[in-house]
Amino acid sequence: MLKRFVEYQSVIENITILHQSVIPGLSAPAVCHLKKLTFTDEEWDHLIPTRNVLHTFNEASRLLTGRRYQTLSVENVIRTSLLDAFTQHFDRKLSDDQKEALIISAYLDPHTFKRMTDGDRNTAEESILKQLITDTTIGKTRNIYEPGASQQRKNDPLDMFLIDCDRVQVGQSFQEFWSSYEMELPRLAALVRAYNIRPASSVASESLFSIAGYVQRKQRSSLASNTLRYSMVLRDRDILATLV
């Protein structure tokens, strides 16, 4: 609503300021009422920046709460882009584990990596190194690919990742990138599977459950022979289990 109001600024000013030429024959009370609705230049100067700020927050909310499955890497970029408005939320409301998960997932996504600040990248690198050293689960992935000691010193995983990020092809998706470099960076690929599958919001999963519930109700209300047969199987599944 505010966006449309600002877009029609010229129309509103014509009606409230130049009302006699736009709408001839207005009564004195109507003219007095229109004068009270007139916006000053200072009020427009406040209204337009407010529209711009709210538009940014609205776009961020739409990105995070859409039906598309957004992950933590996108959430981190949106949060840092909102700057001062999200500073308090970042510093005071998120736990250290949540902050670490956000920064690692953004670092491991080649597209959000480009939009990170140098400070965020340094923090992410320290967190990733700590995870690679201390996480015993990730250490098990060495069975997939175990280069020699000399090659490990020459090709540090983080250095290889930084080089590969510069070689990301235009239009190459997140899945394509890690499918190409999964064998070369097995330990970082394990971190990707641990962090970058986490959803940024529950909207996508809630939407899936809602659609599944709708389809289930629709199928139950149908009297087709297949539907009735499947319903009988589900009802008597305990009896059928003893017969199999």
From TrEMBL:
An annotated Gene Ontology molecular function: protein dimerization activity
Pfam family, one: Dimer_Tnp_hAT
Highest taxon listed in the record's lineage: Eukaryota
Protein name as annotated: HAT C-terminal dimerisation domain-containing protein
Species whose genome carries this gene: Rotaria magnacalcarata
SUPFAM superfamilies attached to this UniProt entry: Ribonuclease H-like (SSF53098)
Domain HAT C-terminal dimerisation: 175-235
